[in-house]
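Q: Got a minute? One more chain.
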Amino acid sequence: MVKRAATWAGLLLAAVLSIYMFWGESAAGKVGENIPEPESGSSIWLNSRLYQIRARALFDRGLSRLGEPAARDADFLRAYDSFRRSLSLNPFSAVTHFDFGQALQYFNVLDFEVPERYFDEYRKAADLSGADTAVYLEVGKVLLSRWSGLNSDERLFTERILRLLLSFGGPDQARRGETLLNLWEVNVNDTQVLQKILPENAAVLRQAAEFLGGKGIFLKTRFDFLARAEALDLESAEESLQAGLSERNARRPAEALRLFRDAAKLINGIRFYRNLTPTKDTLTPED
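A: Always. Here it is, folded:
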């Protein structure tokens, strides 16, 4: 009985959310009609979400009216107000901060003056996103695309979030790396910056080296990335070897054998790129 009641409660909540979202999205699209205000008796979360939906819809409608400055600015003003109201109710929404930052960028380009800075909203979105790689990726893409217009502090922040983003694992790691490498080439093309945003991760370093090799650019930096990747592989191989010896001493031969094989696989993949980078200590096959 309790389980059935919980199921019905969940369905009811989903229905209420759907109605609120439909209300916000459809109301903003009714040209010439007043958009209803959220009800004062509703929850703070629902009202914040509704204001966000209305803000986004009004902003999008304003973009479709670029040839009508008065109507466009009226929509932008109402969108701006809705973004602020949404964030006043829920200042911890990374998505709303990101959407607001995106709107502020357009406001800036179209000379629609507001006191907030788009970068500050993107910073808040990244800081609040936790391990949400989707928000991190979108913020990283925007800031990397606007690299030339960032000041030194903003560049440091951008380098930090890009390094963190590239360090995230998962099935999309390679896709994220490819996206950011392409944006780096178009908007930055500075190997010192690339050195700063790449984490100490062998797979990411090899992907960057492959990217540079495929483009035929910065070959010395490419070898440096390969050397760094090999150094990390050596460290991992040593850790696997030591762990395997511990498992062997504990009389767990199957686990010890697995760890020894992992170490051997890492060592067999080494091509001694460190010998091609003069600033590094050279290695011999015997080492």
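A: The longest helix spans residues 219-249.
Q: Perfect, thanks.
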